[in-house]
Records
---
Amino acid sequence: MIRIFNLTFFIVFLTITKANSLIEIDITRGNLDPLPIAVSPLFQDDKTKKNSNNQIKIENVGSEISLVVENNLKTSGLFNPLSKEAFLQKPDIAHLKPRFEDWALIKAQALITGKVTIEDKKLKVEFRLWDILAGREMMALAFTTVPSNWRRVGHIISDKVYERLTGEKGYFDTRIIYVSEEGPKTARVKKLAIMDQDGFNTKYLTLGNELVLTPRFNPTSQMVTYLSYFKNLPRVYLLDIETGTQEVVGDFPGMTFAPRFSPDGKKIIMSFAKDGNSDIYTMDLENRIVERITNHPSIDTSPSYSPDNKFITFNSDRSGFQQIYVMKSDGSNVKRISFGKGLYGTPVWSPRGDLIAFTKLHKGKFYIGVMRTDGSGERLLTENYYQEAPSWSPNGRVLIFYRETKSNDQGEGFSAKLWSIDLTGYNERQVQTETDASDPSWSSLLSN
Amino acid sequence: MNFSKSFRNIFLVILLSLIVSACATKKTTTKVEGQMQGDVYTGTDTVKYLADGVPDRVFFATNESILTTKSRDTLRKQANWLRENSNINVVVEGHADERGTREYNLALGERRANAAKDYLITYGISADRISVISYGKERPVDSGSNPLSWSKNRRSVTVKAN
């Protein structure tokens, strides 16, 4: 299969300035006032222009990288990248020493400058983040990689800027694995697909010959677990997206589904359905030992571990209706935590540990929401005709999920798309995909 | 005079046919309503037959896997047919409608297929002749987003395996 993750980065801190910056972004509340930031095109010399044209067929890679950064910062909802037309200073000069008055004039509070060279089939990028009001440099970094990695350079710069200005890790140098959908509702063709978080570099990992569902990333490696109907036997599979090798998980005499990795990446937790009853099981990926975690005549499914691996949240209809539960990871101390009106499903533990995201169905509407791990503090972030299956960004700030539209009586008008929303409930937006899409899962940061 | 009379007659005819067609529309609606009992589908729109008089599928209420009287009747017919055709094995496919989360629906489809399978077993069909598969909400037969469409999709279908 496709080799995607063979990427090496050398990151060098140019200078470390421990400036007490005036600018910082409070991301704990809805950001109604995004930070005005100027992303100057990264400067490239003529030689680089020529090499860039030859090697990656791009006229101005420095400018393209800055667009990646700009788009990332904008979609985060926390930044307001200013129009480049208003920039008064040339990229190379600004990168050496910005005229802060000029940037203050266009109301920029922060400025990103940089320089890019391509030499000996190596892409070298350096960038600086400037605090305009304080009139000083906040950060400076340099990267070396292969030229084809230029978009990732943009993502890494975005992550560094985001982290420097918000105090939290970014989520831009990440990928989304999802199910690509095509064809009529009654004969939908589904394929595993993977793309950069911003919708670029889509690759299809299966051909669509068999139904595939619910892919999920291993948080610690380039492995994916998903459900495949290969040979009409719905089973949980493990796929190495670097090598393309895949295998069935465990030897179950029936359907296994709803797989997810434990946060340490060592186990797969999933449901196994037999004789009309679904319970939760784990399989240790090292010694292949299978453990039964729940044993109840109800449907127990959609399990998700807490980030410390000590607890599991799942949904069960043991009360008569689908509700969310939390238990210790050995299956003891099962407690129901959802008590609001309606049905609750697909609980997913936040990577920060403090929240559980879920899907709620109430009076014919579907909601994506979050609650604390004891069930208190329920907050519904978005309401729609149909949406489900939230997945957290690795920093726990953003949720990605899928949304389906209502068909008319002839079955027309149906679509499935990926959407994201900030934990605050603001900044809801569609995530672009080449085809219809569902079941998104967000990877960890590829580099740190 | 004559002309105006015939004109009036034509007008009456048009008016009458409008009323008739309005009635017809109303009748169709009633028919649609008659295809569901509670929210269980009772019509024959999507039904196929394993043999003469042996429907291939049974329908369920929302979030339920309980077999209705009509479903049990259908499954008894299937059991009779399976007894008469002892060389035939079947797969019971369980399905759910689109108004539930994907993973829960997979479990629900499995539960429905097993409800049908268990009933066939109690009517003397050997368990090893019946396998089950759940498709959850992945294979609707009716692609509409309305209660009638959903009711057709909440089903278990008995399919010949050989």
---
Amino acid sequence: MKSRLFKHRVGSTITMSLLLFGHGTLASGRIDYERVIRPLLAARCFRCHGPDKQESGLRLDERDRALAGGDGGTSIVPGRSRDSELIRRVTSVDEADRMPPKGKRLSPQEVDLLRKWIDQGAKGIPKSRASRAESHWAFQPIRRPTVPPPRNAAWPRNAAWPSNAAWPRNAIDRFVLDKLDEHKVTPSPEAPRETLIRRLYLDLIGLPPTWEEVSAFRDDRRPNAYERLVDELLASPHYGERWARHWLDLARYADSSGYESDKPREIWAYRDWVINALNADMPFDQFVTEQLAGDLLPIATIDQRIATGFHCNAMLDPGVRHESIIDRVNTTGAVFLGLTTGCAQCHSHKTDPLTHREFYQLYAFFNEATITEMRLDGEPLASSHLAPRDEPSTQDTNPKLEPDPQTTLVMKQTPQPTHIFLRGDRANPGELVEAGLPALLHVGRDASQAHPTKESSLTRLDLARWLLAADNPLTARVTANRIWQRFFGGGLVATEADFGIQTQEPLHGELLDYLASDLRSEKDPGWPGIKSLHRLIVTSATYRQSSIARPDIVNINSDNRLVAHQGRFRMEAEIIRDLSLSAGGWLSSKLGGPSVFPHQAAGILENRATPASWTTSEGEDRYRRGMYTWVWRLTPHPNLPLFDAPDGVTACTHRDRSNVPVQALTLLNDPTLVEAARSLAARIVNSSANSDAERIVLLVQTCLSRDPTSQELELLRTLIGNQRRTFATDHTAAAQVGSDKLPPECDPGEFAPWVVASRVVLNLDEFITRE
Amino acid sequence: MNVTDQTRRQFFGTSALSLAPVALSSLLASEQDDGPLPAQRPHHRPCAKSIIFLFQIGGPSQLDLFDPKPMLLRREGEPLPESMLKQISFAQIQEKQPKLMGSPWKFARHGECGATVSELVPHTASIADQITIAKTIKTDDTNHMFAELMMNTGWRQFGRPSLGSWAVYGLGTESQDLPAFTVLRSGMRPRSKGANYGNGFLPSKYQGTPLRASGDPILNLANPDGISVDTQRQSIDAINDLNRLRLQQTGDDEIAARIASYEVAFRMQSVAPELLELKNETPQTLADYGIDDPAKPSFARNCLIARRLVERGVRFVQCFHGDWDHHTGIASGLPQQCQLTDQPSAALVKDLAQRGLLDDTLVIWGGELGRTPVAQKSDKPNVAVGRDHQIEAFTMWLAGGGVKPGQTIGSTNDLGCLPTSESWHVYDLQATILHALGLDHERLTYRYQGRDFRLTDIHGEVKRQLFG
């Protein structure tokens, strides 16, 4: 039986890659326990000699126990690998004797690492799990790191990149250059201006620039042209939309309650609150506090109460109140702390310092809140509108287009007792707990001093203050990382929702802290809005790099951890719609308001337990930005999940970017996108461009924000020519293709080829990609 | 391993830096490389061409379906012995002395092989002689999300390629008209969502293509009015030519995947409508699967679509069905899931056999973990208790694709919580599945971050016993 349990299974070749890249062995030649030895022991030994099992009494993950050894005596003798039983066993040629007993034996390199580490004194094993947490990088206070000094090229210069001394534009670049130099890698050249403006537009407002805007920027020779453009975009009302949608992913925003019943709910006012707050560059602490506890602020305004919609977004169904509270705890953990609190629902967290009891203390904050409807005009709700408990009373299965009165969901403090649920099970209530803050290391000590435990128990307001406390390093680190993620396609910490103990310090840990300290100044007790950090990032040379792949460094730049180039990634579901509609020229620029119902295929709402309706919106509302589309959680508009929009079930911190044939079918054949191609063709044909070549140039400029290459021009010209011949003989088809967008006095056979060409360009990878 | 990929990467890798002008004609000539995944030669003689993995999300209770333990009934309510308690890990149970719970369902021997199967799955019992039941599957994580990833990607974290994507990476596809790796869903979504059929670090074109779980399985198959097949073909040629130019400039592999997607999309337009036209099946076939309304999404419909997919040369079909996570209410929940899945699963095996497809198709039935012999108490009154997660030994069944039928492989102890014969770790299962496809799990590698990765990491042993 023992051998079966010893069976070596938890695979890890972490050490192998560490060896290859030379990390973990510090400059002094010292072997780093956390980076090298612990992963090795965790993979090969902890399963039987770790926290869960101690075969033969040996436990290797805690210092005293590891040094004391097991039933058979000492296993590690610091400084003397030759006398260490551990080395003897892993090198034993006797199969009955060697460790691990099954699976491959340790490689000579692995044994060598262990030997060296023991000879160096076997240092670094944490005293206990708690002490390991104490030394975990993400839990350390944020200290604004010193910006690396300017340096001269350590890497080989080449003609394409003659100088690195002139490269940095701001502090970010100095951090990036420092690591690039260390790895003897050059940064990527700056992207062309056409790419830069499109990148800035898509990143900051989620809309493409018009060709007029592109050419104006291209020709703007003022030294601060780029910075002016950045400021202009940060001031655009569409900035709020773009960044609100990122936040709504975290807030699991949707227009229905979820579960099988999936009833409609009215909560768009919360979505608009987020847009407005971001546009106003609301200080981040205020932004968080109002969402978690706006109702508890002194003389709470209507807006502050609307903000509490953040946690009203949780799914709701009769009888599942408990689950929605669990979701609120977990969302809080993932969004602000970057911790997987969910594990502590049933047991103390296996790795992170969060106990089962602490989970239910967090639970208590949200257990003491109920969800109610509130009229946006501040008038009291008619009693019939009042929800019985926490369940909105809407029985209507059709979403209200013009709800009267307009309402939204808000939180209301309603004290009630909280029990620990053993194993996370409601039938198993344990002791009573009060709302309380996790003793997560030093975090929040200031906060608890500033707000000593009062006679009454803590509220969500105290939770918000704790999250935002000067000595809580997680909220700022997690937020800064997430902002970086949006601008580069991936975070400096790749596991953007898990900053726990299992997550190693990123290569750019100092840069992350620099960014975080920009959000959370040690000197200033308040937080700024996030626009200033956005400005810092997008004006860096690092951000302005080309996104062309770097096969030269592929082996040392996994996940682009060196940030040696920009990211090139497909746009989100909502933005793909916005791009197409913009090209067609009829994207509505209207901000906010109730969610809308653009065209969708028949049959999407079939087979629901609770019927739902979808009456296509009229007029301008049919052409609103993708983020305003009504979301039935159970049966969302098909183009949303198809392009990886979140399902609103739990907080989404990272969207997939899938790339599958059914997406191609939609981009080619979806009626809305075909309509966009028609409108685009009409714009081209109606323009002053007369020759085929001029029109093609205009088409590419409009859609891709750049001039076509000669090869592209030739390809499209050939397509137009062939299609002209096709439609010259098939008038019916030509009329169908042009449909109602046929410009007056234009021959259908002449128009149809332009619809085909427009559709081709709207289907290009580059069109739906931010480079 | 995959020559085309590497050549392309080298080619574009260089051109991305030097931006050497490449004649358009030579780009167009490379179409073959960028199209759907050409069939490739396996490492050894395969016994299966296709896989249908009927993935049962949440962990079906092997103790109530395939692994009868009369001892549990005899010792009902007694605590699990301390010695065993120490050797197993629960997901949720925290009780110091969890109590044994027998199965309320009757078991009987079936077929000539005499396999013991529960009354809950009479249809599966009827194919006892066509399947092989493996009772000592073992995994590493008690958490659904990570156990799903373990079973489907061989790694307990996000980011690794899935079994299906490894298979199509290794073998390409016989069908140039449909996604080589197609995913169908019914009931609850898998908890690790798309990562279960993702491509990880493999190029995107190897990822699974999910069909819709409600309404039409594939939308937008028809061309817009007035666009003929010829115009569509010319349009897609233009799109792919233009994308190829961009691929040359950026060196971004995503574009290669997009080119392949458009190629498959075009072919799907002609093939998929017929594929999904289940009315063409005989009323008898529909009845065999238990499909009342072919337009209505269900696991049964997905099983039938799965057969039609492999019939058309699709390499890997995965039908996800949930949810079997019966921590509570197992008395009502388990029969309900069996009702939805038993008949179609068995019908699929019979149907494949009848059409001569079973020899070439490996069918796998099972979830990411199993369930405990001890009861987990319910939080609601009047609801029967359930079972927690068990990872030391659980049951899956396999059929076709060279599997020697009628075997029951492996055994567990009297209480059903620990194996008494050799464990089949998930890695062993994965190695064995790849083996059936003619792929050597140790040779099917992909270089990433400076080292060769494989599905089975540094583990896995092909269980030849399965094939007799």
